[in-house]
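Exercise 7.
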Amino acid sequence: MKSVRAVLDYLVAGEVSYIFGIPAGSVNAFFDELYDTPSITPIVTKHEGAASYMAAAYAKYSDSLGVCIGSSGPGGTNLVTGAANAMREHLPVLFLTGAVPVDTVGLNASQELHADPLYHSVTKYSQRVDRAEDLLPEIHKAVEIALTGVPGPVHIAMPIDVQLTDILEPAIPTFPQRTPLLPTDEVVLETAKTLASSESGFLFVGQGIRGAVDDVLELAETLNWPIVTSPQAKGFIPDHHPLKRGIFGFAGHEEASDLINHGKEETVLVLGSSLGETATNNWNPNITKNRTLIQVDYDATVFNRKYPVDHPLHGDIDVTVSSLITALNGLGVKRAPFPAMDSAVPDVTEEFNSQNVLWSLQEKLPADTRFTIDIGEFMAYVVHYMGVKSEDSFDINVHFGAMGSGIGSAIGAKLADPERPTVSITGDGCFFMHGMELLTAKEYDIPVLFIVMNNSRLGMVHHGHTLQYKRAHERFGQEEVNISQMAASLGVPNARIESMEDLNDENLSAILNAEGPAVLEVSLVDDNVPPMGDRVKFLSSFGK
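Solution. The predicted structure, written as tokens, is:
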């Protein structure tokens, strides 16, 4: 059998359902084997970069391995940004790239590229395989690395001749399973004693609490401590929970800022946040000033990066928090009931602006809608103003901040969780990078609503320069393009909003009831300053 056939058999054994990418000469042998692999559907995208975002989102929301593939040369380089994104998000994605035949290396072969060094800094493991008998063992090794410990992306480069070489039929290795990480009982008990003896404190939670929200809420209620979230963790703590104090960091809330900057709490418990720039408002020292810092994370490298940690707990959030609750109960600290409170309703005015449009649209969508948020000025409005009506309802990639990633992420998320309504909120700048994946969604009948905030400019750049330099270059803008007409040319249901009056059921019915993808274009130039002032102040601090 061909060595590449063994790779497909291995992925089938691991219950891989989708492979995202684009066929080309150096990976055609892989795609040819997919004819005989009905359990795996190739999602052929319009750009490899979008494929990488789809694979990452699929890995996140399916809690399984994502797989994407690109050709040697440009296909491999197009995937690198997605690998860096997956690395930052700790997502297990197998990146496969083709490579030129082994005996043509160094001869200026078509699309020749020594790809594996490019992936070293953006993956947990990267290797080119030059012998057919080593291909399956290296794939298995890479997948094991991707799924175990701190999850993350891996990369294997497969020369085309290696893929096509016959090998003896191998035994298919057992697909790896991740073993949960849990601190020792002694560390848990010591930390629980510190928590129990603290007069006051608060929880600072990041996106690492995904899958452990119920435990986190129980811990907060047991301690009777307020909860502050990072921007990336928006969507986990419901608005109606009485202990919620909002978001700290990029586009955050005044109540959360007051608690951190002026509160008297003596202990801060950090759960699932690496305490990076956007989560901490540019590493604000007040988060831990005169406070005891307890930090729980499965990535031990986050401890003591910027803030000295008094009690580091190296473990998965769910099992560690559950163990802390048990230990607290043993110390006599019991959970008190917290009835839900009414969610605050913002004052939506008749002004046609981003805040009013986004809130009004959310009110017309199902309460359990998941939003994948792209990069742009609209992101600040989403973080600051949109409500949290259901768990795990926002995918906000402020960490790596790749424009256009929210488009592919919506497609991958929908494939992973097909029953959940999924909406991508993107901008015209992002759409011009990866908007043709709208056609991918149509071809595979993937029902995602793409809301495109079209202001005919790079809005975050425009506002950032205006605030920081008191001027913005005219070339940050561009000629207005009717994106709804672009969608119409692809045969995709669409609507264009040019005023608050346009947000009516008649205009929206076709797109809200579409069986496949749909586009809602919001043609809006909003000259209000987005809630991103602290970011601008940080950038302005350099050079002074």
